[in-house]
Structures are given as C-alpha cells and as structure tokens.
Amino acid sequence: MSAIEVEQITKTYKIGTQETHALRGVTASFNEGEFTALVGPSGSGKTTLLQIIGCLDQPTSGALRIKGQDVSRLNADQRADLRKGTIGFVFQFFALIPGLTAYENVELPLLLNGEGTAARKARVLELLDAVGLSERANHRPDQLSGGEQQRVAVARALSVRPLMVLADEPTANLDTENGKQVMEIMRRLNQETGVTFLFATHDPRVVSYATRVVQLRDGRIDDNHSAIPTV
C-alpha cells in the first residue's frame, strides 16, 4: 500500500522577476515499509521534495497524498497536526535542542503529543537502547559526538511511531564509520518497525543501504537511473 503519493508536483521560487523551477512535474509513490534513497546532484530537487512530502512547504501545483489523504485540502493547522503525528525528521545538522539531554530530546515529541509519563519513559528508554545510547541518556548534545547526536535524532524521529521518517543528507556531517553506524541503525529500525524511510543523499555508500533508489535531475525523476539496487 502506498504511504506517500506525489502527482505532477511542481515548485517554483520567485526572486524579483526571476523564477527558479526546483521541481518540474514529479510523480512518484512510496510504499509502506520502503527504505528509499532520493539521489541526485546539488540543485536536483531532493530537499525540496522532502520538504513538500514532510508538509514543511507547499507545492506550486500538483497533489500530495499521505495514506490517501489529500494534503492540499488541509489548512495550516491541519497540516501541522498531520506532520506532528505522522512524520519524523532527521536533519543533516542534527537539530537537537542544546539545553536538553538526549533523553529529553527524544521525549519532547511525546510530550507535545500528550503522552502519559509512564508511556513516555518506556518509549524513550526503548529507543535510546535501540540506537545504543542508553548510557548517554543524561548527556546534552555538546557532550555527545556527531554520530551520537544523529543517533539521538533518529530515536527522536521514531518516538511517536510515525508513518514515515524523512532524512535529509543524514550522514553528510559524519565520518565514514559514524555514517555507517547511523545507516545500519536506520535500516534495522526500518526492518523491525515497518516505518517508511525516505532519505536524500549524494553518497554512494549511503545509497547502497537503500532497497529502492529514485534519481532526481533538474527537478524531474530520471527513470533511466531509478531502480532497485543490486548491492
């Protein structure tokens, strides 16, 4: 079943009289449980597509459906509610809250969703254990390595049991070994939970973890280079 469907999505940015076409009629669907890499050179539209799917931005034209729901029919508050309960995010620069511990960063989405104290604690401890950071629960981001911060971010993205996790260049600020650890954790959690993962990258080592690759070029899907990896 499709978790995400985009149909003829375009996105045009205007600066004065100049127009930039970030997306040019993108149509694709992503099934529940997929672990998909969006690949392409800088400026190909990867991040823009993730932002639209994540309800952080709206397309200039076209349709986005999440579990069959037409997102274009929702107002700003409804999109925010959908995003809060359905979508987890992993960002290139971690985006952890500096004054909160690893435990508190993972707990925050649960607090915002009104989860009870006992359920919050059980879920946070479960996720920190899943990403190998149980012993670092009380450390703030500035006391964690880059790899550890990104693992906290992965745990936070999964805290509310989302339909999908969107990751924008999740290993770009990590060395090879930490990048490998993060991707292995994401892939394992994808397999264990069935959550759909959609991640943008230009790193061939990261692409090798994907079960499906969607190539973007000049704001369009390049069907000649979108495939299931053989590695």
TrEMBL record:
<dbReference type="InterPro" id="IPR017911">
    <property type="entry name" value="MacB-like_ATP-bd"/>
</dbReference>
<dbReference type="GO" id="GO:0005524">
    <property type="term" value="F:ATP binding"/>
</dbReference>
<dbReference type="GO" id="GO:0098796">
    <property type="term" value="C:membrane protein complex"/>
</dbReference>
<dbReference type="InterPro" id="IPR015854">
    <property type="entry name" value="ABC_transpr_LolD-like"/>
</dbReference>
<keyword id="KW-0547">Nucleotide-binding</keyword>
<dbReference type="GO" id="GO:0005886">
    <property type="term" value="C:plasma membrane"/>
</dbReference>
<dbReference type="InterPro" id="IPR003439">
    <property type="entry name" value="ABC_transporter-like_ATP-bd"/>
</dbReference>
<dbReference type="InterPro" id="IPR003593">
    <property type="entry name" value="AAA+_ATPase"/>
</dbReference>
<dbReference type="GO" id="GO:0016887">
    <property type="term" value="F:ATP hydrolysis activity"/>
</dbReference>
<protein>
    <submittedName>
        <fullName>ABC transporter</fullName>
    </submittedName>
</protein>
<feature type="domain" description="ABC transporter">
    <location>
        <begin position="4"/>
        <end position="231"/>
    </location>
</feature>
<keyword id="KW-0813">Transport</keyword>
<dbReference type="Pfam" id="PF00005">
    <property type="entry name" value="ABC_tran"/>
</dbReference>
<dbReference type="GO" id="GO:0022857">
    <property type="term" value="F:transmembrane transporter activity"/>
</dbReference>
<dbReference type="InterPro" id="IPR027417">
    <property type="entry name" value="P-loop_NTPase"/>
</dbReference>
<dbReference type="InterPro" id="IPR017871">
    <property type="entry name" value="ABC_transporter-like_CS"/>
</dbReference>
<keyword id="KW-0067">ATP-binding</keyword>
